[in-house]
Design brief:
By secondary structure, the chain is an alpha/beta fold. Helix content is 37%, strand content 15%. It is built from 16 helices and 16 strands. The strands form four sheets. The chain has a six-stranded parallel sheet, with helices on both faces. A five-stranded parallel sheet has the order 5-4-1-6-7. Helix 13 links the parallel strand 15 and strand 16 (370-371). Helix 1 (35-49) packs across helix 2 (74-84), helix 9 (219-228) packs across helix 10 (243-256) and helix 11 runs parallel beside helix 12 (329-343). It is globular. The chain starts with 14 loop residues before the first strand and ends with a helix. The model is unreliable at 411-417 (pLDDT under 50). Adenosine-5'-diphosphate is lined by residues 194-196, 219-220, 237, 292-293, 316-318, 320-321, 323, 352-355, 375.
């Protein structure tokens, strides 16, 4: 997949509409995690220093087409102003005469931020009229919001069909890192999939099984697989209507000769709450009135042993109910272990809001090769699906057929758009 990026276009004096992902957590009018804002800085900085007039646009939360004062972008603009060391004005509305005027007054190397796009219901409907109004602000469109690239909205797809559309640096990096996992991973390649449910991750499991050498399952979703193996899981979270699917996935793994590691011992708790009674037991016999809340020490050892030689890892989903400190051990331990693998030169990519949070809680983020800013988008990408917000970006023209290795190119073009 080879998309044109902002390096491929002359932006001096041009008005550039940049779709960013500033959908950040807020508390009392302050941004509590600014990683998505920081991730957009290289693109914004590049455009400003190359003389563009930058119009930033994002959604925040789910205002469902109505103005909600608690979801205004002012706190985001304040944080961005600090990071850029300059004032970033926010318009009162994404549309309207005042905004049109503010855009017109932008000079080279200046920027502004449009108010929350989702204050207009037309944004999520990919309304053509709304997309046209946004497109009128600019001559060039840039998408740096990988986290919303799996949604066909006015600011991710509609506008990109009306303007020459380029990838920002963050988008470029996300596509490059995730494509590499699917197309050309260094081996052994291991996927670690945890989290709450099998249902949301079946398609990604199917697609990854065609790529990986080893699949490690943990978290709530592993319970459904334990059921598929004929074990009981007590009162644990499990999807009884997914047991057949889980059995099919295990069969597929066997056919493809992909080793699957499931928990061999687990932490069980009386209740899924803080301060409850808990203990570690073999995964063979879970008592009827207990809940599985984490993987046990023997399981961790098994996983770490299997990961010793690994060259590429994709991790999505915590191994336990990591929000409760007593049940966070497995998730935290695997995060620390993967950081050491990355230190040793392995490519370690993490996607998924909760897995990323677990890494950030321990201050390990810097050590990983890539932390995807888009949970849902990264999973859809790894399902092998074409993301609508990526598909609309301009493709890099194919080089003359006489040039260079062809086999590689063909693979890239197939997985691309
Ligand atoms: P991500 O955001 O990384 O993609 P998910 O959203 O799929 O991950 O899953 C995260 C959730 O899974 C967390 O809230 C965690 O508490 C829950 N979870 C993990 N293991 C279990 C378990 N054994 N029982 C119940 N919930 C679990
Ligand atoms: Mg999640």
């Amino acid at each position: 997949m080879d998309k044109l990026t902002i390096r491929d276009v002359d932006v001096v004096g041009k008005r550039v509409f940049v779709r960013v992902d500033f959908n950040v957590p807020l508390e009392d009018g302050k941004v509590t995690d600014d990683s998505r804002i920081r991730a957009s800085i290289p693109t914004i900085h590049y455009l400003l220093t190359h003389g563009a007039r930058v119009i930033l646009a994002s959604h925040l939360g789910r205002p469902d087409g109505k103005v909600q004062d608690g979801l205004r972008l002012r706190p985001v603009a304040e944080r961005l102003s600090q990071l850029l060391g300059r004032n970033v004005p926010v318009t009162g509305d994404a549309l309207g005469i005042g905004t049109v005027d503010a855009v017109r007054r932008l000079r080279n190397g200046e920027l502004l931020l449009l108010e929350n796009l989702r204050f207009h219901a037309e944004e999520e409907k990919n309304d053509p009229g709304f997309a046209r109004q946004l497109a009128e602000y600019a001559e060039i469109y840039v998408n740096d919001a990988f986290g919303t690239a799996h949604r066909a909205h006015a600011s991710t797809v509609g506008i990109a069909q009306l303007l020459p559309a380029y990838a920002g640096f963050l988008m470029e990096r996300e596509i490059a890192m995730l494509s590499k996992l699917l197309e050309d991973p260094a081996r052994p390649f291991v996927a670690i999939v945890g989290g709450a449910k099998v249902s949301g991750k079946l398609k990604v499991l199917d697609n990854l099984l065609a790529k990986v050498d080893l699949l490690i399952l943990g978290g709530g979703m592993a319970n459904t697989f334990l059921l598929a193996q004929g074990k009981s899981v007590g009162k644990s979270l499990a999807e009884h209507d997914m047991v057949e699917e889980a059995r099919r996935v295990l069969g597929l793994a066997e056919k493809r000769k992909v080793r699957v590691i499931l928990p061999v011992d687990v932490v069980v708790a009386k209740e899924v709450t803080r301060g409850t009674e808990y203990k570690t037991i073999p995964a063979e016999k879970i008592p009827a009135s207990w809940h599985i809340v984490d993987v046990g020490r023997a399981t961790l050892e098994l996983m770490e042993e299997a990961l010793a030689e690994v060259q590429t890892v994709f991790w999505n989903g915590p191994l336990g109910v990591f929000e409760i400190p007593s049940f966070a051990h497995g998730t935290r331990a695997i995060a620390r272990f993967l950081a050491t693998r990355a230190d040793a030169g392995a490519t370690v990519v993490v996607g998924g809001g909760d897995s990323v949070a677990a890494i950030q809680q321990q201050g390990l983020a810097e050590r990983f090769t890539h932390i995807s800013t888009g949970g849902g988008a990264s999973l859809e990408f790894l399902e092998g699906r074409e993301l609508p917000g990526v598909a609309v970006l301009l493709d890099r023209p194919k080089p003359e057929p006489a040039a260079k290795p062809r086999a590689r190119r063909r693979v890239a073009a197939k997985a691309g758009s």
